[in-house]
Amino acid sequence: MDSLKELKLAVDSSVGGVSDDEDRLILALDFGTTFSGVSYAFTNDPEQIYTIDSWPGATDRIVPKTPTEIQYTPGSPDKFKWGYELEGTLEDKVIGLKLLLDPDQKRPYWIPTDPHAEIAKLPKPVVEVAADYIKAIFQQALSEVEKGYLPGFLDGFKKQYVLTVPAVWSDTAKAMTERAARRAGISPINMITEPEAAALFTLRTMKDKGLKDGDAIVICDAGGGTVDLVSYEIVSLAPFEVKGLTVPSGGALGSLMLNRSFEELIRQTVGEDDYVVLKKTEGYRSALREFDVAHKLSFRGPCDSDRYVSFPMANLKDNKAKGLMKNCMTLTGQHADINPCRQAMFRIFDPIIQEIMKLVIEQVRDVRIKQLESKNQNGSDVKVRFSAHTAPIFPTLPQSNIHCPVLQAIFLVGGFGASTYLKECIQTANPNIMVVQPKEA
Ligand SMILES: Nc1ncnc2c1ncn2[C@@H]1O[C@H](COP(=O)(O)OP(=O)(O)OP(=O)(O)O)[C@@H](O)[C@H]1O
Ligand SMILES: [Mg+2]
User: Fold this and answer.
1) How far is 179 from 186, CA to CA, in rounded Å?
2) What is the number of the ligand closest to the CA of 252?
3) How is 258-319 classified by DSSP, letter by letter?
4) What is the distance in A from the centroid of ligand 1 to the CA of 255?
5) Which residue is closest in CA terms to ligand 1's atom 28?
6) Which residues line ligand 1 (CB under 6 A)?
7) 130: domain CATH number?
8) Could you report the per-residue pLDDT of 382-401, keeping only the tens digit for each?
9) Is the pLDDT of residue 1 over 70?
10) Ligand of minimum distance to the alpha carbon of 254
11) Which atom of ligand 1 is nearest to the CA of 419?
């Protein structure tokens, strides 16, 4: 999510008391479950959008986002490290902070998670932890912005802030997020939903790449914590104008749930007693990290190669049937094997992907309903148009001047949206619609 032009519109429409002729600096925080980033623009040059790409702990690199992680010094709840400062740290740190702002959000029932227990382990209330992180990231952003100008230049600009929230965020969670931002000194703030931000960014970057006036698209932003969906119609490419076709939808089905599912698989494989001991070891943390940065990202679906996760010196009981031998667990992507241990990667991925697919199918259905409504508005003899590569599901008549959105593509964005296996599953379930993983997303 890097587009501030649209965010500016969102800001203009909902923040009162700021006249348009005042020069403003708008900073937008993409507060992600696993990674966060800040973009900014000046209202006197709104086409020029900048992204913060220098972060404490990673000054040797140019990266658009920093990890949403924070770790407090034991006994000093005001001292903390955050983001890349914690890179390589396996000790306890707060991860998935954003999800703790909505602890009652429905989670996948097959993954045992207890957000309230995680909140209880924090050294201070979750809103204050979120405020510390938000303050730190905006301080970094502002100091980076200031570097580009003469001292005092920014004093002439009012600052406005934009924050994204998941489509499924409860009102309480929105209020908590806003409270955390205010506590961090961020005001005035405007909140927009993540699928809307993702859609506007994707549509802008894709508009020169084959999309046409009248096309409808489904956006599925699969991130670390949540999956957020919405569908849009391109009313016009020039000037750029889009129209929301569906109500944004989503769920707590992000990539972090794959990690939790992997932990659950370890628990079931080694047994409850050994798991209690194993969980406290460095080897366990490093196995989780290996899953997160390697196995999970490279999983391609059927016929994938075997993977091994080892827990050195853990003294686990061998269990050949479950693929556990000599403290080493086999994770395989070979689907058709009768041995359950040989389906480990599918047991991790499939239940989550099934839930995401249900959400995609609901969006596609809702777009189809809009198409039918357009048809009815345009007269009963007029039929829905289809794009060249979509097989007609409804019968068509010769071209006419009617206006109906054409469901052109499903765009998969966000980190999890880059998954080869997720794309394959969604494509198989929707053979008549193109599934696209835009490079820029
Ligand atoms: N190929 C992949 N398969 C599965 N997960 C992936 C893949 N590539 C990246 N990820 C995961 O995507 C997540 C990062 O994505 P992103 O930055 O979109 O999430 P986020 O903005 O932090 O989360 P959210 O938007 O849900 O709050 C990480 O959890 C990362 O492990
Ligand atoms: Mg995100």
Assistant:
1) 10
2) 1
3) HHHHHHHHHHHHH-HHHHHHHTTSHHHHHHHHHIIIIIHHH--STTPPPEEEE-TT--PPPB
4) 6
5) 224
6) 32-35, 98, 194, 223-226, 254-256, 292, 296-297, 414-416, 418-419
7) 3.30.420.40
8) 333 333 343 333 333 344 45
9) no
10) 1
11) 1
Q: Say if residue 49 is in the same domain as residue 138.
A: yes
Write b or e for each residue in 221-238: b if 16 or more Cβ atoms lie within 10 A of its Cβ, otherwise e: bbbbbbbbbbbbbbeebe
CA–centroid distance, residue 259 to ligand 1 (Å): 11
Range of the domain at 283: 256-347
> Tell me: the pLDDT tens digits for 190-220?
998 888 888 877 887 776 778 888 899 999 9
Looking at the fold, whether 78 and 153 belong to one and the same domain comes out as yes
- Of 347, 370, 391, which one is at a domain's C-terminal end? 347
Rounded distance from Cα 178 to ligand 1 centre (Å) = 23
Do residues 169 and 43 both lie within one domain?
yes
Structure tokens at 2: 């890097």
Of 172, 193, 214, the position where a domain reaches its end is 193
Residues 218 and 354 in one domain: yes
Same structural domain for residues 180 and 216?
Answer: no
63 CA distance to ligand 1 middle (Å): 15
